[in-house]
Structures are given as C-alpha cells and as structure tokens.
Amino acid sequence: MSDSVLTFDVADRIATITFTRPDKLNAINDATMAALGEAVDQVRARDDVAGAILTGAGRAFVAGADIAELRRKSAVEAHALSRRGQAIFRHIELLGKPVIAAVNGFALGGGCELAMACHVRVASEHAKFGQPEVKLGILPGYGGTQRLPRLVGTGRALQLLLTGETIDAAEALRIGLVNAVVPAAELLAATRAMLLQMLANGPLAVAHCIDAVQRGAELPLDEALALEAAEFGLLAASADMHEGTAAFLEKRPPRFTGR
Fold first, then answer.
1. Domain 203-250: which topology?
2. Residues 2-28, mean pLDDT to the nearest whole number
3. Is 113 part of the annotated catalytic residue set?
C-alpha cells in the first residue's frame, strides 16, 4: 500500500483510510485503486479492525477518476479498469464489517460511486455530490448507474446521471443519498461515534445484517425472506446470541466475542 496515495490508521478497532492526493482532489488513478484494494483486504483480514472510515485529505473526498490517465485508455483497457474498480467497490459493500464514508468535500464521479459502495454516508455541510461522466462522453463505470437508483429512486437517479449536475449536502440528505450532514469540524468525530455505536453490537449480528441486506436486495422478496430466516437461525446458535439475551435479562452490558 502506497502512503503517497492513501494512509491506513487503526485506533479503537476502527481503520481510517484517508486519500492523500489533495493537489489532485484525490482523483482515483491506477495506483490509488490498487492501494484501496489492499486497504480493503486489510480491513477484511485484520482481527484488530472491526470497521472502517473512508475520507479524503483537503477539499475533496474523491473527485472522480484521473481524467488525464483515463483518456489514454483503449476500449479494452477501459473495460478492464471498470471491472477492477467494480470488484473492489463490491468487496467494500460485502465486507462483514461496517464501512462509513466521511465525505469531507467533493464526491464526484468515482468518488460518489465509492461513497455509495460504503454501508453508510456521513457528509460535511460543504460536501458536493455528482455523476458528471456524461459531460465527458462516458457513463459511470464503478457502479453508479446501479447503486444510485437503488438509493434515491430511478427518476431522481436518471436526472442526476443525464444532466451531470452537482448537488450539495442538504439535497443529498433530502433525496436519501447520505445518512447525515454535520458541520465540517465535527465530521470525523460524528462518523467515529456512529461507527462505535455499530461496533458495540454483536459482530456476527452486524455481519449477517450487512449480508442479508446486500444479498437480499438482489433477490425476489420470498427468496430474500428465506435468506433472512436462515441467517436468523444461524445467529440463534451463536454464543453471542446467548450472551446478548442473557445480558438483556440481567440488565448488564453484553460481552460479545464474535462466536
């Protein structure tokens, strides 16, 4: 992982992944995407990491792709680039550990797509969102045409995709693109507080909730309900379920072990 494009810091079981190309508004180039993939693998593998925050240094969260690099790609290379980014973003989405985007500034193009791949989005009051790819003669390549309508509805998604317009944090909150908007100075603290609230719960339950929502969204309702019931049954056999219910009845904090 290259510290020149992002940093990976761990404290209190939270990995904070910070994009560090502020002079390029943290635009995603090949090196950044590779480093992000390595960071996601670390979040998945490390026992001392229970969740993650993604954020950016400077004025941007991630302001899309590196256009100078992108315009040199052939059709074959562009297809491969899209599939590689889609795979990494999907890994984030399917992590059994919660990932929150702390959107500090511009989240445009691939940056908006990255935020949407996170489980929750908390925005600074100064954040801006958009999918401006049509202005370059292309379309989103990292899942924007699929995740945006799932979050905000088809009509609003098509408006944003076809106009390429940029919206502010208040509008993003109104349409359901982000979960919360906070003052810029409080962004990381508010995001950490939300993530710590999640991490206080049973880790197996959190992982299965993520799995049921993400996989269930792709299934017909009856199949999705069957998936939920199967995961409910699996958790009922866990030590964490017995600890959680015992702690509730004994009026004490639970001591979850992830088993």
1. Lyase 2-enoyl-coa Hydratase; Chain  A, domain 2 (1.10.12)
2. 92
3. yes
Is 6-199 a domain of CATH 3.40.640.10?
A: no
Give the residue carrying structure tokens 């680039």.
81
Q: Which residues contact 61 (CB under 8 A, 6 or more apart)?
A: 19, 26, 54, 55, 101, 102, 103, 104, 105, 106, 107, 111, 114, 115, 127
Q: Which of 69, 113, 125, 231 is catalytic?
A: 113
Q: What is the mean pLDDT of residues 98-113?
A: 97
Say if residue 167's pLDDT is above 70. yes
Q: Which of 133, 223, 228, 231 is catalytic?
A: 133
Is-catalytic flag, 243? no
Distance CA 256, CA 244 (A): 7
Prediction pTM value: 0.94
Give pLDDT tens digits for 107-142.
Answer: 999 999 999 999 999 999 999 999 999 999 999 999
